[in-house]
Specification:
Structural class of chain A: mainly alpha
Strand order of the largest sheet of chain B: 1-3-2-4-6-5-12-13-9-7-8
Largest interface: A-B, 41 and 50 residues
Mean pLDDT of chain A: 85
Strand content of chain B: 5-15%
Shape of chain B: globular
Organism (chain B): Streptomyces yokosukanensis
Number of helices of chain B: 15
Protein name (chain B): Amidase
Structural class of chain B: alpha/beta
Shape of chain A: elongated
Low-confidence stretches of chain A: none
Number of strands of chain B: 13
Pfam family, one (chain B): Amidase
Radius of gyration of chain B: 20 Å
Radius of gyration of chain A: 18 Å
Number of domains of chain A: 1
InterPro entries (chain B): Amidase, Amidase_CS, Amidase_dom, AS_sf
Oligomer: heterodimer
Number of strands of chain A: 0
CATH class of chain B: Alpha Beta
Helix content of chain A: 25-40%
GO molecular function (chain B): catalytic activity
CATH topology of chain B: Amidase signature (AS) enzymes
Largest sheet of chain A: none
Number of helices of chain A: 3
Order of helices and strands of chain B: HHEHEHEHEHEEHEHEHHHHEEEHHEEH
Chain lengths: 77, 463
């Protein structure tokens, strides 16, 4: 298990903190699924977002063209 | 030819010419439903008596010279996430037992005003959170998945059990089942078709659009659906438009982007061959093929999940706490685990979407449309949860079906899935055409031009 994965008790505590008490028989499965989702989404941390705003309520067709995509490691170079 | 076999455009022409009455058409489709539904289970509920009553009213109006639109008297199915006043919106879930919609959704109201006749509500993967629609069977082979989440809507149209239908699409849920059942599916530009009254999966990725037998049919339905509704914060202010494509099939001057990465990676050989053959047809019609590089592919799945997972959990916040046991196991676990995603990761996905939209805008400066497979494989067997690619890579079937569809949800770009043949097992293959924001007319023109090079499509034989 890698350092950023949640154990079943940690998953249960996080869920409770978010207002979702989980029965004991859900802890293992929720932790496993949450860790899988995390492994997929964490790749976004590679990106260097600079001043990029979130696209919270976006209008299709209003984008600026040709913005270069950089990762955080590009910035460090 | 029986009336149920007519594509929408042909049925509308026949009604306008008084060669076919809405009563004959609706009766024919209801008979077809009775015959095929035991094999398909496309519908949650069929409201036959109400449909017959609406058909009689339509027939009277048409006979009186009051044809409201090309959809007047045309029978349709609506995915059961779409509210119709007085009816349950079950979302194919036990969570919604006893539900009753108080008002029509915007799309149901527009279709009703246009004179379309509701046959019933079609099955979805529970709350649209999945790619199989397990209640429903594929129209071409009952042992194969329908695809999802708008599985019932696609299967009904493929089998002649609805002349057209509506689906919703958050990661491919219109286009995936359309491709797997050999029908046309259009995910319009984000915000072109309003969503009030439709159960959300993920607000920032949700779209609603038509599933039809032909591209021209999809254009007819879109012409009724599109237009601003201030109650949808994403709704675009666009003038009313007639999206019907011109008769001409000349694509001279059109630049068709053919991806050299991503869209043909881990794609079944028969699917790739059928799609490349269809792209060759576009070239034969005068289009110029241009190699294109798809941007930010490493971040597509992460962005899709980073947006969808927490938004879906937020939508279900109350019922996940009060009646979690009523959800199906696959949906419940995703909703629960979604509660554990940090806000920072959600914002990464939102900011990644900004970058992705900008990068795709640059790409669509180079070409007018992009042509690619809709899904990397035809319909898998029911219960077959993974696909093993020739290089040994194992991918969940759901991940595979979302993989090529998600970019259009993240960017909001319009995407049209068009059938382009069958694999050796007799299962349909779909080609996806992606365009610029509000570029539906171009997609429909290209799709229609392609269709004119092909023999008329048959209904799934079913029974």
């Amino acid at each position: 298990m890698s350092a950023d994965e949640l154990t079943p008790p940690e998953a249960a505590r996080w869920a409770a903190r978010a207002g979702l008490p989980l029965p004991a028989d859900r802890h293992d499965a929720v932790a496993a699924t949450a860790n899988h989702i995390h492994s997929v989404v964490a790749v976004l941390r590679e990106l260097d977002f600079g001043d990029t705003p979130p696209a919270l309520a976006y209008r299709a067709g209003e984008e600026k063209h040709h913005a270069a995509v950089r990762t955080a490691s590009d910035r460090r170079r | 030819m029986q009336p149920f076999e007519l594509p929408l455009t042909a049925a509308a022409d026949a009604i306008r010419a008084r060669q076919l009455s809405p009563v004959e058409l609706v009766d024919s489709v209801l008979d077809r439903i009775e015959k095929v539904e035991p094999h398909l289970q496309a519908y949650v509920a069929v409201t036959a008596e109400q449909a017959r009553r609406e058909a009689r009213e339509a027939a009277d109006e048409v006979a009186g010279g009051r044809l409201r639109s090309p959809l007047h008297g045309i029978p349709m199915g609506l995915k059961d996430l779409i509210n119709v006043a007085g009816a349950a919106t079950s979302a194919s879930s036990r969570v919604r037992t006893g539900h009753r919609a108080e008002a029509d959704s915007t799309v149901a109201a527009r279709l009703s005003a246009a004179g379309a006749v509701l046959l019933g509500k079609t099955h979805t993967h529970e709350f649209a959170y999945g790619l199989t629609t397990p209640q429903t069977n594929n129209a071409w082979n009952p042992d194969r998945i329908a695809g999802g989440s708008s599985g019932g809507s696609a299967v009904a149209v493929a089998a002649g059990a609805a002349t057209f239908s509506l689906g919703t699409d958050t990661g491919g849920s219109i286009r995936v089942p359309a491709a797997l059942n050999g029908v046309v599916g259009l995910k319009p530009t984000y915000g072109l078709v309003p969503r009030p009254g439709i159960t959300s999966l993920s607000w920032s990725l949700d779209h609603v659009g038509p599933i039809t037998r032909t591209v021209e049919d999809a254009a007819l339905v879109l012409s009724v659906l599109a237009g601003h509704d201030p109650r949808d914060p994403a709704s675009l202010v666009v003038p009313p438009a007639d999206y019907r494509p011109d008769a001409g099939a000349d694509l001279a001057g059109l630049r068709v982007g053919v991806p050299r990465n991503y869209y043909f990676d881990h794609v079944d050989a028969e699917v790739e061959a059928a799609v490349r053959h269809a792209i060759d047809q576009l070239q034969a019609l005068g289009a110029q093929l241009v190699d294109v590089e798809i941007p930010m592919t490493r971040y597509i799945k992460a962005t899709q999940w980073g947006l969808m997972v927490p938004e879906a959990t937020a939508y279900h916040e109350q019922t996940l706490r009060t009646v979690p046991e009523l959800y199906q196991a696959d949906v419940r676990i995703l909703l629960e685990a979604g509660q554990l995603m940090p806000a920072g990761d959600y914002l990464h996905a939102q900011r990644s979407r900004t970058l992705m939209r900008q990068a795709w805008a640059g790409l669509l400066d180079e070409v007018d449309v992009i042509a690619a497979p809709t899904v990397p494989a035809t319909a898998v067997a029911a219960g077959e949860e993974v696909i093993t690619w020739p290089d040994g890579t194992v991918e969940s079937a759901s991940d595979a079906y979302v993989r090529l569809s998600a970019p259009a949800n993240i960017t909001g770009l319009p995407s049209l899935s068009v059938p382009v043949g069958f694999d050796a097992a007799g299962l349909p293959v779909g080609m996806q055409l992606l365009g610029r924001p509000l570029g539906e007319s171009t997609l429909l023109r290209v799709g229609h031009a392609y269709e004119q090079t092909q023999p008329a499509r048959e209904l799934a034989p079913v029974a």
